Amino acid sequence: MLLALLSRNGVNAAGKRFSITSLTVKRAFSRSMSTPLLLSPSQLQQLLPSTDTKHVSILDSSWFMPNSPRKANEEFQEKRIPGAQFLDLDEVSSPHELGLKHMIPSERHFADACEAFGIEPTSHVILYDTHGVFSSPRALFMFRAFGHEKSSILDGGLPRWEAEGFPIEANAPARTSKSVYPTPVFDKGMIRSYDQMVSNSFTDLHSDPAVELVIDARSRGRFLGTDPEPRPGLSSGHIPHSFSLPFTAFLQTRTIPNSSVQYTTFLSLPDLRNALVSHVGDHAEAVIQGKRPIIASCGSGMTAGVLWLGLKLLSVPNVALYDESWTGYASRASSKIEKAKN
Q1: Which helix or strand (DSSP H or E) is residue 142 part of?
Q2: pLDDT in tens, 91-112
Q3: Catalytic residue among 294, 298, 307, 330
Q4: What sign results for the dihedral spanned by CA atoms 17, 21, 24, 30?
Q5: What is the reported pTM?
Q6: Strand boundaries in 157-239, DSSP class E
């Protein structure tokens, strides 16, 4: 992988190629020594026979939009990866003044959830969802924000696991014995507040190198204000000086052979890099090199996790997530909402 990385180049908005820096290579070496962010089904399968549940914990972190008829926990009860437990991201969260869901939990709430799942600080936590890649990156963001570095997502989720012929469990989920999980320390630098987002939006990127680049994972139509938000009464549009980067731009859709079932996986590293360049232009090089910090936002803080993870796969060092995202921002009457093309 590292040799391949050395030979790859990025492409900027003008079509010119820029080489991968030595800093990127150093980060790749460091990443190769740590727990991988992504696992394939075969890699997960290899982890299971030789370990017990204290060392490997599999969590179904599926989540659906409020207007969806699908129920994640009900689907989990019917079908899951053997030994998996269900992580409800709306339950393992903090209350919010605006009633927003799945906000980052308190340190103790996170630890209590880990104990209930039988997770220990040394456990390898593997997260998946039933879309392929949708809500599992948000769950991974949570684990990494609380310092649980031994965590990964299953790239392609349950559909890919099943498509590649690995076993499915359909009987009642087994109960797991409780563990002990010390209260962790939350990395506050990984989250941005409403006040921080407003302050950051006052200045154009070109006039101040300290300004953080904001990328929005919602659809282009919602970003421009031409399409409605799925949440009734909420205006569409975007934060001033932010960039549209739909989370789907970091993913590829696959179809299970002889079936109409589709699922998503992450793009290759070169394609991820090119997707970033195509949406933020020449800012991409500064982001990848760590010279320009970047914030991922979306509708409610869920699919911003896809952008966060895609950037971490590119070894981008300074990536934060706007936890409230657009729902929190647009719900406040004082927020400035733009609808023109950026």
Answers
A1: helix 136-145
A2: 999 999 898 999 999 999 999 9
A3: 298
A4: positive
A5: 0.89
A6: 191-192, 213-216
